[in-house]
Design a protein that fits this description.
Elements lengths: L7 H13 L22 E9 L2 E10 L14 H13 L3 H11 L3 E9 L2 E8 L7 H11 L9 E4 L11 H16 L6 H17 L12 E4 L1
Antiparallel strand pairs: 1-2, 1-3, 3-4, 5-6
Helix pairs in contact: 5-6
């Protein structure tokens, strides 16, 4: 990962350096930076969870660095802890976060975001977050864990068919081995073409007979 690039010129230079160093561009992405620092130069990051229909505030972190990941000892006191406590207790942004979660079609996860001029600036939505505080987690799970009718039955397959990725795991291992080999030989400039061939082979295997789950409905059992 590069350091923070503050202009299109710096971005162009970083891309050119990748090519000069023989690095592949296939596994690189460009992420936009949004400055959310306050007048003191402090960055903040809110974390809010959704479980089913319930949205609740989880944490509020501060940092002098633009990448805010966790609670830092420098801000584990006074006004900063008070700000986090108020955020968790009042959950002030729930109404603004709900349509964003709905747009992303996510019903379990944690949104990391900042507030900029009264608007939500989303950084990411983590769909496998560390479990939130128990006081909020358990009620939310109880709301999900119910059955409106004992008559409702869900068909289950008698024999589980693994996803297609498990059938072509060798392709991922080969791709990794090819990357290491090309990097060792300083031939990473060739990697895009080589990896493209590997992806074509993998797609061919996915379309091959027997690579998908059966859809004829046979081999099912009824279960509540």
């Amino acid at each position: 990962m590069t350091p923070l690039l503050r202009s299109s010129g710096e971005l162009d230079a970083a891309i050119e350096k990748l090519a000069a160093d023989g690095m592949s561009r296939d596994d690189k992405i460009i992420v936009e930076y949004r400055d959310v620092a306050d007048a003191r130069g402090l960055h903040h990051r809110y974390g809010a969870y959704i479980i089913g229909a319930r949205i609740f505030a989880g944490n509020l972190f501060f940092s002098r660095d633009w990448m805010v990941k966790r609670l830092q000892p420098e801000f584990a006191h006074g006004e900063f802890l008070a700000a986090e406590d108020q955020y968790v207790r009042t959950n002030p942004h729930e109404g603004m976060l709900r349509p964003i979660f709905a747009l992303a079609r996510i019903e379990y996860g944690r949104m990391d975001y900042a507030m900029v001029n009264g608007r939500v600036q989303v950084f990411e939505i983590n769909t496998n977050p560390i479990a939130p505080i128990v006081e909020e987690l358990l009620p939310a799970l109880r709301e999900l864990d119910y059955s409106a009718s004992r008559a409702v039955r869900i068909p289950l397959r008698r024999h589980f068919e693994p996803p297609w990725e498990e059938r072509v795991n060798w392709a991922f291992r080969v791709a990794s081995a090819v990357h290491v080999l090309l990097r060792t030989c300083r031939l990473l400039a060739l990697e895009p073409g080589v990896q493209s061939i590997l992806r074509s082979i993998k797609r061919g295997l996915v379309k091959a007979p027997g690579s998908r789950k059966p859809t004829d409905g046979r081999g099912t059992v009824a279960s509540r």
